Amino acid sequence: MPDFKTLLSERVKETERIIAEYLPVEEGHQKTILEAMNYSMNAGGKRLRPLLVMETCRLFGGDRKDAEPFMAAMEMIHTSSLIHDDLPCMDNDQYRRGKKSTWAKYGEDMGVLAGDALIVEAFAAASRAFEVTKHPYRVGEAFRILAEKTGIYGMIGGQVVDVELTNQPIPKDKLDFIYRLKTGALLEASMLIGAVLAGAGQQECAKISQIALNVGLAFQIQDDILDVTSSQEVLGKPVGSDEKNCKTTYVTLEGIEKAREEVKRLSDEALSILHSLDVKNEFLEQLIIMLITREK
Amino acid sequence: MPDFKTLLSERVKETERIIAEYLPVEEGHQKTILEAMNYSMNAGGKRLRPLLVMETCRLFGGDRKDAEPFMAAMEMIHTSSLIHDDLPCMDNDQYRRGKKSTWAKYGEDMGVLAGDALIVEAFAAASRAFEVTKHPYRVGEAFRILAEKTGIYGMIGGQVVDVELTNQPIPKDKLDFIYRLKTGALLEASMLIGAVLAGAGQQECAKISQIALNVGLAFQIQDDILDVTSSQEVLGKPVGSDEKNCKTTYVTLEGIEKAREEVKRLSDEALSILHSLDVKNEFLEQLIIMLITREK
């Protein structure tokens, strides 16, 4: 078996080939928005969410063809949230990953519409699963999860509270809510959709949810820790920005030691639940460990 | 049989009861956005699109329970487009139907997020059809239509071209594109979804699409005519605004006589296709006639 890094790089490439099949051809009167969508989708994400869909589907022995439309869908939903987050009335970011943000390149109106379009195209992509599946009710359930975890009881719910509390101290319960939903919900959706499409049972799905939520929280807290302990060279972005912006984080609320303990607790629990399953996917386990223990 | 107006008012009320079942309860940390969504959904629309879903489903003898989730979904998609259209970076409208627009009441960031949330909740609502249906592949096809006609090859595609050509003369082919997609696509989706859920065949669906597109175009051109020929009292909004804003419309491009002829041609054709079907829904026919011949 090739080492994890080689396998990861292969599977990211494979994921990008799959996503590309769902991107629009840039022609027609509405060409500008098609360009804006492709620009955002090709801006160099880690493709983490589609990877989690694929690997959790693989874990339970599911049919890859059912998962592919949802891999594209998850990446589109994630990208749409970045586009709208960058808008002047939100975070007002002109750059993302060293490139102009979508609205800065195509105009604010196109930024709004490109984000809208990617949400809709996510569901359009996912609906193509009905053309190939032998399990329409599973696909229906995956659809429900995609919508629920994206919407007001998922990612968007988290964004709302985050936006409302900008430049304000955030109490612990609301910070938990934001962390759980803003990042956690899409990670949960990705793993849960992979599991549901593969026909995992209720108990297995509950375990997958818990793993994903733990990973999401640990990922977020690790982010807070790195902002304090890392260097700009390693992280690729300025450190200490949370303190400078008076931002409430897990570290400012609980201290660095408690934050580290919490990451460890969440990770250990996630891996122990993963090991309690009757099925095994070595690569998925490595992927989860990478997410939690990352140094950048 | 009660007269059309009585029946219409009853069915609009029924539609509003159905939609209400899919609206969020205003509680939790993310309460602001739930309020903003309900505010926009209850701002007094005509409920035209859900009515078309229900009545086309009835035309083909479909199961109402399958249609209800899509009735809510269509109204949510329509409302989301109004919220985002009103944003400062789009039409910059502070009022809609005599009430503050969503962003003017809840802030621009919440305006963006409330529109996003309604798109997502539309698909969440629609996914509830899987819990009740005996025909999951039909529901899957309805999902595909909802996404396709909302997205870049539907409503959003039309918005993009409309936004790009603001304050510019619009050539005929692009005006047709905007009219066909910006309004037409959602009317088409509504009728088509009703038909598909009821198990209508391919030929019947093709006819339904043609009827809906004709109605959409006629509706739009009638709008242009009324802006020239009506009075503020009848229309409830200022007339002559298209000329004042140097807006290209069907009337400015083709003249009022040709516009009237086109409305008549499109309407006659739509009704003649409707009559060519083996099934009948008197109320749907009246509804279509009302849409086309409206004086406000």
How would you describe this structure to a colleague?
Two copies of one chain form a homodimer. With about 300 residues, chain A is an all-alpha fold. The first copy, chain A, is built from 16 helices and two strands. Chain A has helices at about 5-20, 30-40, 50-60, 65-85, 100-105, 110-125, 130, 135-150, 155-165, 170-195, 200-230, 230-235, 240-245, 250-255, 255-275, 280-295; strands at about 95, 100. The first copy, chain A, has a two-stranded antiparallel ribbon. In chain A, a hairpin with a 2-residue loop joins strand 1 (about 95) and strand 2. The model of chain A has no long low-confidence stretch (mean pLDDT about 95).
What attributes characterize this protein structure?
homodimer, 296 residues, mainly alpha, two-stranded antiparallel ribbon, 16 helices, 2 strands
